[in-house]
């Protein structure tokens, strides 16, 4: 499947809120970062299949803040390919590391990021207690954020 990323300009970001909410179910929290960093649509031959947003933690570290795929496009390698595209793009801009955080309850995400070459680096205890509503996935309440890191290779 041919996959491309298209930059979303600031004034268009709000219309992608429903996609962003597939990965982060708190509208209030998404609204806090929707205007930060860079946002891209993930596109296949069939059109937009997902969204990806990155923010900048330093001149060398970029954070994968949100990535969501429409349900019918999950489990097909699209997410991994989108991350590879982000890695190449930001390595080319001089960044050395990509980080991402996910909830302790997001079992599929934890496996996905490790398969994509990320390593666990820290746990942010009680991170999700700041969300307006409790998040429960896989019968587990989200309390802590697991942070993963990946060095951006020069290949």
Main attributes?
155 residues, alpha+beta, Aminopeptidase, seven-stranded mixed β-sheet, two-stranded antiparallel sheet, 9 strands, GNAT family N-acetyltransferase, GNAT_dom, transferase
Explain what this protein looks like in three dimensions.
The protein has 155 residues and is of the alpha+beta class. Helix content is 23%, strand content 35%.
Concise description?
Residues 3-150 form the N-acetyltransferase domain. The protein has 155 residues and is α+β, with helices and mostly antiparallel strands. The protein has helices at 17-20, 27-33, 78-92, 107-115; strands at 4-7, 38-44, 47-56, 61-69, 97-103, 119-124, 136-137, 140-141, 145-151.
Largest sheet report = 7 strands, mixed
The CATH class assignment is Alpha Beta
Mean pLDDT value: 94
> What is the CATH topology classification name?
Aminopeptidase
Cα separation of the termini: 21 Å
β-strand number: 9
Structural class: alpha+beta
CATH superfamily: Gcn5-related N-acetyltransferase (GNAT)
Lateral arrangement of strands in the main beta sheet: 1-2-3-4-5-9-6
**Global morphology:** globular
In CATH, the architecture is: 3-Layer(aba) Sandwich
Strand content: 25-35%
Q: Return the domain count.
A: 1
User: What low-confidence regions span 5 or more consecutive residues with pLDDT below 50?
Assistant: none
Helical segment tally?
4
**What does the radius of gyration come to?**
15 Å
Helix fraction bin: 10-25%
**What's the order of the H and E elements?**
EHHEEEHEHEEEE
């Amino acid at each position: 499947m041919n996959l491309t990323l298209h930059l979303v300009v600031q004034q268009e970001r709000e219309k992608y809120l429903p996609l962003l909410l597939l990965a982060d179910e708190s509208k209030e929290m998404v609204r806090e970062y929707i205007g930060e960093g860079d946002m891209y649509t993930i596109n296949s031959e069939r059109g937009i299949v997902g969204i990806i947003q990155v923010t900048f933690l330093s001149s060398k570290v970029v954070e994968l803040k949100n990535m969501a795929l429409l349900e019918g496009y999950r489990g097909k390698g699209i997410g991994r390919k989108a991350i590879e595209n982000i890695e190449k793009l930001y390595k080319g801009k001089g960044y050395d590391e990509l980080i991402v955080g996910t909830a302790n309850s997001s079992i599929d995400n934890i496996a996905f990021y490790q398969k994509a070459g990320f390593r666990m680096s820290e746990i942010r205890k009680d991170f999700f207690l700041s969300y307006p509503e409790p998040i429960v996935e896989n019968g587990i309440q989200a309390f802590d954020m697991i942070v993963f890191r990946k060095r951006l290779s020069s290949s």
